[in-house]
């Protein structure tokens, strides 16, 4: 099992928001939202820097992306949609885990009806063209929602947004702490609902004595 597979395995049973209690970096801007509510996405990034609104470059990236990966597209200018119903269907047929677009997408209803998770900043009728200009760059670092994502990074998404993690850069203890936090949450919610004193249930000071929010 390589580093990325180990991260994906560690995160299978962890709520992404729980990571926010223990990590500060890798959380994309909140404008990067799920097209379909309720979707959860996890995979290794295959990246595309789209310098022009070039649909041919997107098609080539879909073919090149490994099965199970997340196609991550940085759209320069951000006005043209590189992803719509056909693109989503092709990515699903390729066996991709999802698509992330730092920009806009099109075919809103079709994307919402489709099975493949898609994340973007919004929707437009202005789409890419069959340019084949050769200016696009695949498998390079891209800026997505104010986060630099490298090829091979683990990319995860849910209704709360997108998280990108660099394998080997996160202390494995973080995953254990997050898993323990998730495991304790149902009982804590039950005790709150039962009316137990909040002073006894909530953490009111950090271990160092500094007040904390969680």
Please write out the topology.
Layout: H1 3-11, H2 16-19, E1 33-34, E2 41-50, H3 55-64, E3 70-75, H4 85-94, E4 98-102, E5 104-105, H5 108-113, E6 118-120, E7 122-123, E8 137-138, E9 142-144, E10 147-149, E11 154-158, E12 161-165, H6 172-193, H7 198-201
Might you state the CATH topology name?
A: Glucose Oxidase, domain 1
Helix count, DSSP H or I runs of 4 or more residues: 7
Determine and state the CATH class.
Alpha Beta
Number of strands: 12
Oligomer: single chain
Uncertain runs are: 209-214
Shape: elongated
- Radius of gyration from the CA trace? 19 Å
- Taken as a percent bin, the fraction of beta residues is 15-25%
Largest sheet: 8 strands, mixed
Class from secondary-structure proportions: alpha/beta
Q: In the CATH hierarchy, what is the superfamily?
A: Ribonuclease E inhibitor RraA/RraA-like
In the residues, how many domains can be counted?
1
Q: List SSEs in N-to-C order.
A: HHEEHEHEEHEEEEEEEHH
N-to-C terminal Cα separation, in Å? Answer: 34 Å
Mean of all residue-level pLDDT scores: 92
- Please identify, by name, the CATH architecture: 3-Layer(bba) Sandwich
Helix content: 25-40%
């Amino acid at each position: 099992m390589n580093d990325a597979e180990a991260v994906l395995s560690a995160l299978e049973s962890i709520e992404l928001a729980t990571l926010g209690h223990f990590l500060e970096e890798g959380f994309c801007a909140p404008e990067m939202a799920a097209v379909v509510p309720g979707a959860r996405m996890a995979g290794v990034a295959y990246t595309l820097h789209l310098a022009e609104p070039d649909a041919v470059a997107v098609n080539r990236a879909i073919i090149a992306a490994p099965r199970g990966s997340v196609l991550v597209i940085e759209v320069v200018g951000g006005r043209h949609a590189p992803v719509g119903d056909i693109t989503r269907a092709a990515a699903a047929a390729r066996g991709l885990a999802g698509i992330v677009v730092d920009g806009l997408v099109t075919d809103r209803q079709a994307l919402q009806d489709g099975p493949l998770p898609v994340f973007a900043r919004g929707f437009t009728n202005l789409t890419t063209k069959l340019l084949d200009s050769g200016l696009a760059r695949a498998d390079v670092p891209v800026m997505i929602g104010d986060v630099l994502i490298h090829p091979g990074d683990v990319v995860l998404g849910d209704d709360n947004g997108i998280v990108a993690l660099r394998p080997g850069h996160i202390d494995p203890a973080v995953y254990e702490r997050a898993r323990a936090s998730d495991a304790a949450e149902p009982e804590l919610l039950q005790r709150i609902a039962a009316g137990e004193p909040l002073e006894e249930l909530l953490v009111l000071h950090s271990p160092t004595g500094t007040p904390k929010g969680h």
